């Protein structure tokens, strides 16, 4: 089959399967089976499909996904998260939408310790969502910031995706990691502006909380007993990486242990809390990882069919000025990102894109950052956006992917704006790696 | 105990084991990091076992999640359909899901026995017999198929809307 | 004449990496000579099939050719250790009958036809963050050092009393930056690809073992080819074994110079100390194959191990 046809057939079929309400995980398995029968042929193809599936999630880099979920669930079910929010209430008084801001700030902090966007979103979602709903935040004020900030984990170092991007694209890994720092923080700043604007436009979207701050002694007490101990959790996750005790993939386990320890100190580590936390973590982890099993193989079949390379060659085959070419490369990434996983996208596109990068004289590290942003974006775009799925998984009954995608839209626009800014001021990405040499 | 009860117990039991494997992951990592940083030899099996636990927990949780209606499905479009059509479509979806999952489970079972007979190993931080991962998939897909089949014979459709927290 | 036959090939590594580029040299050679007869089309790397499932895809006839490390299949083919533990070049192995034994192993254990052992002669080295101490006898003291390892040389690191640590590749950069590991094992080439040389400032010489990269083909596809096409593939394979070896010798020399210019110090073991070090490395590999009860053990060791 011609690559155009393969591409259209594969994409329309998976879209149709999702649209008729087939569970997303099964929809991927179905399209994979059909694709396999067509492109690889017969039972041999199906056997290969299963063999490929055995490797898709048995990967140590995915460990933070379930463990950060457990950590977030524990923070919520033991009431530790609630305590922190209450304490912050006392200190900040009536700043509207404070928890939305806190999502961005907290999420950015966690982005500096987590290399995985999925894990970051899962953790933020399972910790913050329930309390924010209780406090009367409108759903978009909760889900938008969480999905957006979750994605920061792969821009701000450490980032396992940046490491893979560097190695496959033969870009200096160290420089690429550092280069993500300023754009990542800039993005976080833009997110805060979005929240500020949304609250101005719709004051009812976030609760006002008590208008008056608590007295100073009360504030000190609240911070000492409810906020400062959280430092232990931060230390367990970031501190151990910085000290060189644990790798980023391992540190999540210490986060779980630290939360459990604190909860035990507060005498909140009940069997019920543990059971609920494990149950919640199992739900979200299972729904994500079953989808990843299917989507990984989907990407592989697309690659095998020649559809993805066809698209990439076609999109990169134009003779255009640098900015238009950049836009086309970017759109290709976003399009692939609608259906495919990040690693596959990188392996497919980099062999074609990197020569173009040198041909057009783009800075490699700078392009790496743009590419990371595009990949981050693809996690939050429907129909296949893992962060959207995570968010649905941790949200109250009845939340749809559409709801989450709408909530994320303003933040997606921020990422697009940042890419334009990076095109105009490449120094935002290239300056830091240069001075740190 | 009756067969349906036993079966329900199996589904729940698997989910519990899946959730417990998160506890195992946590402690296994913590122990290994402590051993490594105190100059002792970490347990070599840990990395491989944790990688396997990721698939195990997923396959053990998947049938239970299907029972809970927790697997994500996009209902934005089907919700606009008249109830008769929605039901019809829902049943087509279920039949297809059962067929696909059963087919995958069957092939995965055959591969499990093939790997067993060949006696090959999957070499990671330790060597584990190659059939194990295939067996996880065979069981997980098979039980998922059964769960969707139960919905089908009960006359229900899958909505995925009871994903709850 | 028959129509031009197009063979689909996959590689264990992504296309931009040096090893895959070397394989593409073989592809080019075949395509140049096989115009109108046989052509190889590289359809991709791990994005098409996971690296360790590619040989199975060839066995199943889904793709025709695979390029990648034989050591990925140690669990099904313990004979892969013969190449890892080899002390001769691939071309010598072909001459002395070693290659024929490996052909048999690939056929019996993996169900694929072995075409070539390319990119041979690239050794592995231990790299460390801090200068490793030497003992009185001149041997290197790695006792208690945490070395990131692959399954292939894990037992060697244990024999050195080091602590082998397994960690996924994306974690290694941060791990080295923060000294989670004291060092790592890696081939002499490609150490700069992931910028690890920023942290790994010491390299222990001599290198040990060597690369085990194979080109394999689907047996049924091979049978279906015309003798003419077979000859082109076969001749190119033999020729490329030597050519890729020579290419990599040049790359090794260039890398060696480059890393030293960039500030890497070589910790060289001499005489008996070097000998003992290598004994441990090769012993770990060959005894592993022996323990697997491979019927080819004696013949393979005789052919490939000549220290
Ligand atoms: Na990060
Ligand atoms: Na997407």
Automatic annotation (TrEMBL), chain A:
<comment type="function">
    <text>Part of the tripartite ATP-independent periplasmic (TRAP) transport system.</text>
</comment>
<feature type="transmembrane region" description="Helical">
    <location>
        <begin position="368"/>
        <end position="392"/>
    </location>
</feature>
<keyword id="KW-1003">Cell membrane</keyword>
<feature type="transmembrane region" description="Helical">
    <location>
        <begin position="322"/>
        <end position="340"/>
    </location>
</feature>
<feature type="transmembrane region" description="Helical">
    <location>
        <begin position="60"/>
        <end position="81"/>
    </location>
</feature>
<dbReference type="InterPro" id="IPR010656">
    <property type="entry name" value="DctM"/>
</dbReference>
<feature type="transmembrane region" description="Helical">
    <location>
        <begin position="345"/>
        <end position="362"/>
    </location>
</feature>
<feature type="transmembrane region" description="Helical">
    <location>
        <begin position="252"/>
        <end position="269"/>
    </location>
</feature>
<feature type="transmembrane region" description="Helical">
    <location>
        <begin position="404"/>
        <end position="425"/>
    </location>
</feature>
<dbReference type="InterPro" id="IPR004681">
    <property type="entry name" value="TRAP_DctM"/>
</dbReference>
<keyword id="KW-0812">Transmembrane</keyword>
<feature type="transmembrane region" description="Helical">
    <location>
        <begin position="174"/>
        <end position="195"/>
    </location>
</feature>
<keyword id="KW-0997">Cell inner membrane</keyword>
<feature type="domain" description="TRAP C4-dicarboxylate transport system permease DctM subunit">
    <location>
        <begin position="12"/>
        <end position="428"/>
    </location>
</feature>
<feature type="transmembrane region" description="Helical">
    <location>
        <begin position="6"/>
        <end position="39"/>
    </location>
</feature>
<feature type="transmembrane region" description="Helical">
    <location>
        <begin position="227"/>
        <end position="246"/>
    </location>
</feature>
<protein>
    <submittedName>
        <fullName>TRAP transporter, DctM subunit</fullName>
    </submittedName>
</protein>
<keyword id="KW-0472">Membrane</keyword>
<keyword id="KW-0813">Transport</keyword>
<keyword id="KW-1133">Transmembrane helix</keyword>
<feature type="transmembrane region" description="Helical">
    <location>
        <begin position="101"/>
        <end position="125"/>
    </location>
</feature>
<dbReference type="Pfam" id="PF06808">
    <property type="entry name" value="DctM"/>
</dbReference>
UniProtKB/TrEMBL annotation, chain B:
<comment type="function">
    <text>Part of the tripartite ATP-independent periplasmic (TRAP) transport system.</text>
</comment>
<keyword id="KW-0997">Cell inner membrane</keyword>
<protein>
    <recommendedName>
        <fullName>TRAP transporter small permease protein</fullName>
    </recommendedName>
</protein>
<feature type="transmembrane region" description="Helical">
    <location>
        <begin position="88"/>
        <end position="110"/>
    </location>
</feature>
<keyword id="KW-1003">Cell membrane</keyword>
<dbReference type="InterPro" id="IPR007387">
    <property type="entry name" value="TRAP_DctQ"/>
</dbReference>
<comment type="subunit">
    <text>The complex comprises the extracytoplasmic solute receptor protein and the two transmembrane proteins.</text>
</comment>
<dbReference type="Pfam" id="PF04290">
    <property type="entry name" value="DctQ"/>
</dbReference>
<feature type="transmembrane region" description="Helical">
    <location>
        <begin position="131"/>
        <end position="153"/>
    </location>
</feature>
<keyword id="KW-0813">Transport</keyword>
<dbReference type="InterPro" id="IPR055348">
    <property type="entry name" value="DctQ"/>
</dbReference>
<feature type="domain" description="Tripartite ATP-independent periplasmic transporters DctQ component">
    <location>
        <begin position="25"/>
        <end position="154"/>
    </location>
</feature>
<comment type="similarity">
    <text>Belongs to the TRAP transporter small permease family.</text>
</comment>
<feature type="transmembrane region" description="Helical">
    <location>
        <begin position="6"/>
        <end position="35"/>
    </location>
</feature>
<keyword id="KW-0812">Transmembrane</keyword>
<keyword id="KW-0472">Membrane</keyword>
<keyword id="KW-1133">Transmembrane helix</keyword>
<feature type="transmembrane region" description="Helical">
    <location>
        <begin position="47"/>
        <end position="66"/>
    </location>
</feature>
